[in-house]
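User: Structure tokens for this complex, please. No commentary.
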Amino acid sequence: MLFTSPVFVFFTSSVAILYYFAPNPLRHKEIFQPLFLTLASMVFYGWHSPMLVILLSTSLFVNGLASRYLLQPYREASTRRLILILGVAANLGALAFFKYASMLVSTFLPSSWVRGMTPFLREIPLPVGISFYTLQGLSLLIDSYKRRTEGMEGLLNEIDGHPLRLYGKISFYISFFPRLMAGPISKAHEFVNQIGPKGVRDIDWNDAQRKLITGFFLKMVVADNLKEVTDAIGQPTFLELSSVTLLALLYGYSFQIFADFAGYSLIAMGLGRLFGYRFPVNFEFPYLSESLTEFWRRWHISLTSWLREYLYIPLGGNREGALRTYFNIFVVMFLCGLWHGAAWGFAVWGTAHGILLAAERLFRNRFGVIRKGRPRMISRFLRIFMTFNIVTFLWLPFRLGDFHQEIEYLRIIARGTYDIKPQMIFVLLFFSIPVVMYHIWGATAEVRSQMRNLAGSRLYSLIESSILALMLFMILVNFGAPSAFIYFQF
Amino acid sequence: MNPFRQVAQTFAIASLFTIVYLSVINLAGLKASLGETNYQANMIRLGDFFYGPNKDAVLVGSSIAGRILPKYFENSGLEVANLGLDGAVLLTGLEIIAERGYPTRLLLLETETIDAVQGPNDQAVVEGLSNLSFRLARWLPLLRASSRPSSIIYSKLKGWRDRSIDAEAVAGTKRQSIMLEPAKQRRGEDQVLAKQKVAIINAIRTAKASAGCIALVHIPCKGPVEDSRPPSMVDEIAEQLALPTIDVARVMASRGISAQYSDGTHLIEPSARKVAQIIAERVSKEFLERGGYIERKATY
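Assistant:
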């Protein structure tokens, strides 16, 4: 069920009405609401293929049982460790089987063996959203194992209570439908304390409308329209195009992937708001980054934050010497690439980022951050420009996936041919402008804050409403061909 | 502050924008005739086709036919609706007519993609037709693709550019444009072609049931009109179904009229207008109107 489809609008409206106003059969709102939303999430998840519900239910069951055990204070340390290992293995095993088995089989086994396998094993269907809810399941297990006192009170207090309350909360945390398919990934200790009875008065309407309108605008007006031309990046279409067009398409894809994923994240956050919940911020104007390190602090923040807390720091982080730090960065980014998709193109993309991040760190350690005496604005602009270009060129392996195609694409760019297709250039320019404006909006946060003080909150709110109204108007009249979110494939 | 205040404010301003925009495009007669992407171009044509008034004739085909806009037939005595779909093939247009029905007197079938197989764009067209927004557009013109601000701007820019290319051609300073052959890429192997031929013949037979008359139209594309030839399958189909063929390229060549292309394949506006005139002229010569129906003249 696409967020942009009419059926989703009907589904969400019905769920919200029942969630707030339905007669409560369980008497206790704090039990009914999470269970009801879990049920609605199951309907949402199994809408197109009901078999997926079995997989999600298994994940909820395993993680529920394991985390309940891990949270109990009277369990022995060795048994708890064993349960953690088994729980983590079950989550990673399911992910590995459904996501990576086909890739590993086709890469490492002889082709004669592969041909002899059943079609299911050769091409195991990837359950949508599995990468996201697996990470949430892992976060729950690890946080439960650590018995964090901060942020986990919501679950710790339920240990001796009715099991339905605990399982309801755990299931709801993992499966809540706005972020089930593609995040933002909430860590257990950042979310479970929010679970509780909610009323209409808990909705932050302003924030919800801001996020929903901006999110739908970025997806339906920007990403869906850009997609119509950036699809030409795929072979064999790009072979016919000139260097300038291919370059323009690459920049267009850079804007499209941002609009698509940031748009999705904002819609998810806005929907969360409608049910009284907050999700972590996923994008913080990433194309304003002055370095790759900063880019990863602004792009898919919920994933990088998860990787930092549950992978980079346990590996030793930056505490065990420079070499080990570079190695850790490299490993984390390689896995980050592979997490995105079961194709070596994603691994190349992640590895390239890892190498450049390590190189950037080395350079910074050796030569310091900024050379004094240069005009700050120009040097800042140059760094933003350079980072944006590096990130954009690194989207190529991410988009094409095939090494030979990437080389061919770059070879055509290097030819220097400049025949342009006006139709493509028009679309790329017209629909990239909102992304540039969005980043300018981000870059001028301080100025806006001053303006707000000068103009007064009423005038400022009128200006903000006008911008949102313009986006709403564009959603109504200028939406593109409906398409799935790019990150749904991961 | 009332929590709904800003939400209400946003919706009120958005409604104001919508009313102002509708008024402006209606008063100024702004309407997109071309789309900035294949999908939007097709949605514009489908919107005009299904929600506009019924016309005497329908020109069905690919983007090559799509450039021969209905307005180019004005004052020619022939009203033509356009179902030339960008990136799609003739078969898709015929299937849409067969499935949805469109009472018309004359079907003009563009020949360039007669042997091209259906692809993702054809699928997108079919999906676009079933979208809720497309269905609502019947009653809400604002939702029609021809009302999109980006498409209106693109149409204006494209018209301006086409006229400047024509002016360059007249002045003899036009540069050689690149050659693209999108339809050829999808042309199938022999076996596929045989299947394609059967599918096209069946689709034309089905269309014959609702259309008074059917003719094949060869519109020039790619290079000088003297060298423009329809695909070989055209003669076989014309003979088998006894269909007349209007060879616009040949007529233009015989009259010494040249064709200009925006990208090596698609006609620019002035050339498309000339093609429309020739089609209207040939139709009036080869077909006659009798009792509300267009029929082939016995002398053809």
